[in-house]
Write a structure and sequence with these properties.
This protein is an alpha/beta fold. The chain folds into two domains: 311 residues, 3-Layer(aba) Sandwich (Aminopeptidase), CATH 3.40.630; 109 residues, 2-Layer Sandwich (Alpha-Beta Plaits), CATH 3.30.70.360. Helices cover 32% and strands 20% of the residues. It is built from eleven helices and 14 strands. The strands form two sheets. Strands 1, 2, 3, 4, 5, 6, 12, 13 and 14 form a nine-stranded mixed beta sheet that branches. Strands 7, 8, 9, 10 and 11 form a five-stranded antiparallel beta sheet that branches. Helix 7 runs antiparallel to helix 8. The longest helix has 22 residues. It starts with a helix and ends in a 28-residue tail after the last helix. It binds (2S)-amino(hydroxy)ethanoic acid (HGY) and manganese (II) ion (2 copies). One manganese (II) ion binds next to loops.
């Protein structure tokens, strides 16, 4: 039965986390910031209450763990199989409160529910430190560290203030040369399950609270630079201009045309112009580009077209076109057994027949893209109002959170039944849930 008290607890904790923001008027929490540290501290306390022992790893990810028998346990017993639940705690600028945070808090609530339930594997909850890539351009830094995929080339990527990733590590109290310690051993992992708001309109359109993810889209991100010449806005006739912003504008509209034709997604989300004065022709324009596609090949072919368009426009308009790739993640197929466990969980929680549980492709990126390198990945999507995300109006209904909690718990128990070697213990002995988390007052708007 749906437990609205715990759903309210989950939503109140997501509201609590909005306090840890670098902006008083909006939610923004980026990697290795004071707000990141404060969010980890808050999450640690909730993990402890849920019967998990906690640790911040060498990349700033916060972990909680209980052993198979339910005892809080950190560090892990080497070789003990472990199921990881979680999502991320960082945000985009002017974010909503559920993208990432809902999955972390929901996972803690599941661990709390199961705290007195013996499982055939240890259970961990992770709050990944960087998924969005807001600060350094490279996304999935937290989960790349946890999956042993840290690339030393990233150390010199700098934030908007010129602080490099290496410097930010040191300021946060982390040792760059220890980042490898965050890597998980694939031999210990049973899987990685993440609950997340859908960030799109499909579930709402179908009047469904939940779905499971089939594939997570691959993504590439670039910084495109157009260099022309800054000159006097009054004294320079059009024939003498090499306006970087006008050239960049042509490229932006061409990118949209090419992406639509390729059935991919392309977004120029940010643009900086120099010198940036009302009476100076822009000499330089820097644009970010985010590319996604159902297949990596389709997305990569689109990139080749965009690069060719950039070169063509540059030649026509007498400017230079350059680019740097800041992020690349392959598309990721969710594992059949985890899709089945999540679908079973949804069926159990909603009463839907197995064939009626919806599987969705995720155009949004998720930490599972990195975790797939070390273990199987599965995802539960929760309906969000109007499909809106990366915006303060992100909203989920408490009833949907309640049913998500039931489905996510049931998915863990489905995996437990599947994982348990044949023996005298009846799987039903595993599925007696502990008492729900005490409901608390839902906090008011604190964004
Ligand atoms: O950008 C994304 O797809 C994700 O929300 N980080
Ligand atoms: Mn996001
Ligand atoms: Mn997210």
């Amino acid at each position: 039965m749906t437990d609205i008290g715990t759903a309210a607890w989950v939503m109140a904790r997501c509201a609590d986390l909005t306090r840890h923001s670098s902006r008083p008027d909006a939610l923004e929490r980026v990697y290795l910031s004071p707000e990141h540290s404060a969010a980890n501290t808050a999450v640690r306390a909730w993990m402890l209450d849920a019967g998990l022992d906690t640790e911040t790893d060498a990349a700033g990810n916060i972990w909680g763990r209980r052993s198979a028998d339910g005892a809080p346990q950190r560090p892990a017993t080497p070789g003990e199989p472990t199921l990881v639940l979680g999502s991320h705690l960082d945000t985009v600028p002017d974010a909503g409160r559920y993208d990432g945070m809902l999955g972390v808090v929901l996972a803690i609530a599941v661990a709390h529910r199961l705290r007195e339930v013996a499982l055939p594997f240890a259970l961990e909850v992770v709050g990944f430190s960087d998924e969005e890539g807001t600060r350094f351009g490279k996304a999935l830094l937290g989960s790349c560290a946890a999956s042993g995929q840290w690339d030393p080339a990233w150390w010199d990527q700098a934030d908007a203030d010129g602080v490099t990733l290496r410097e930010a590590f040191a300021r946060f109290g982390l040792a760059p040369d220890r980042v490898g310690d965050a890597a998980r051993d694939p031999a210990d992992l049973v899987g990685y399950l993440e609950a997340h708001i859908e960030q799109g309109p499909v579930l709402e359109a179908r009047n469904l609270p939940l779905g499971y993810v089939t594939t997570i889209a691959g993504a590439r991100r670039f910084v495109l630079t157009v260099t022309g010449e800054a000159r006097h806005a009054g004294g320079t006739p059009f024939a003498r201009r090499r306006d970087a912003l006008v050239a960049a504008s042509h490229l932006v509209t061409r990118i949209e045309e090419l992406a639509i034709a390729a059935d991919c997604l392309a977004t120029v989300g940010d643009i900086h112009v120099q010198p940036g004065a009302v009476n100076v022709i822009p000499g330089r324009a820097e644009l970010t580009l985010d590319l996604r596609g159902r297949t990596d090949a389709g997305r990569d072919a689109l990139w080749e077209q965009i690069a060719a368009a950039g070169r063509g426009i540059a030649a026509e308009r007498g400017v230079a076109f350059e680019f740097a790739e800041t992020h690349r993640a392959p598309s990721t197929a969710c594992a059949d057994r985890l899709k089945a466990a999540v679908a079973d969980g949804i069926g159990e929680a909603t009463g839907a027949a197995p064939g009626d549980v919806l599987g969705l492709w995720s155009p949004a990126g998720h930490d599972g893209m990195a975790m797939d390198a070390v273990t199987d990945v599965g995802m539960l999507f929760v309906r969000c109002r109007d499909g809106i995300s990366h915006h303060p109006d992100e909203h989920v209904e408490p009833e949907d959170v309640g049913v998500a909690l039931d489905a996510f718990t049931a998915a863990v128990l489905a995996l437990a039944r599947e994982h348990r070697p044949a023996g005298p213990a009846e799987p039903s002995a595993l599925v007696e849930p502990a008492a729900p988390v005490e409901p608390v007052e839902t906090l008011g708007e604190v964004r």
